[in-house]
Amino acid sequence: MAIRVPKAELPTTLRDSMIEQLGAVPEPVEVVWHSPAVGTSNLEFSAKVGAWDAADTSLKSFAHMAVAAKVGCGWCLDVGYFQAQNQKLDLTKASQVPRWRKSEVFTLLERDVLEYAEAMSDTPLTVTDELYARLLARLGPAAMVELTAFVAFVNMATRNNIANGIESQGFSDACEIALAARPTADVASPA
């Protein structure tokens, strides 16, 4: 797949800021900048989402990567793993998110969060009352609401990237542990 719309020219200050933060300009920003209103709104909301702090950062990072692996957004999986490294999260766990059902590195809470992220990514959603109740009991209402909104936002971002033809940009190449591939038989297997 190739990017379906040419990259737009970003304002110099925005381009330079992106390069300073990530070492490169994210292709999703370049693509959506054809509509500066959409691009600006997306960046502003992304920053607000990134500032939420009721739910654990590693749980949200793993959820982000689980959504990306589930729906097939190579760019989000790539940058999510890169961000996990920059946030000094457990890279062994982060590297295993695409194959979390077969990996033994995750706690029960992390496994429930990964399952929840995938269930929220199904169409129609497959979130069960039992899974939601388990997470609510362990996270509390504020973190549960945040996690749910976070996963919904990530679904929007991943699907936007896929529809626009955006693929991996190579951010995870800088990580010390290789990112695991998602097993093809892993799609519907139970936890």
Structure description:
The protein has 191 residues and is mostly helical. It folds into two domains: 44 residues, no CATH class; 131 residues, AhpD-like. Helix 4 packs across helix 7 and helix 8 packs across helix 9. The longest helix is centred in the last third of the chain and has 23 residues. The C terminus is likely disordered.
CATH superfamily of the largest domain: AhpD-like
Radius of gyration: 16 Å
CATH architecture of the largest domain: Up-down Bundle
H/E order of the elements? Answer: HHHHHHHHH
**What spatial form do the alpha-carbon principal axes imply?**
globular
Characteristics:
AhpD-like, single chain, mainly alpha
Task: Give the secondary structure arrangement, pairings included.
Elements: H1 12-22, H2 27-32, H3 36-51, H4 57-71, H5 74-86, H6 91-96, H7 108-121, H8 129-139, H9 141-163
Short description:
This protein has helices at residues 12-22, 27-32, 36-51, 57-71, 74-86, 91-96, 108-121, 129-139, 141-163.
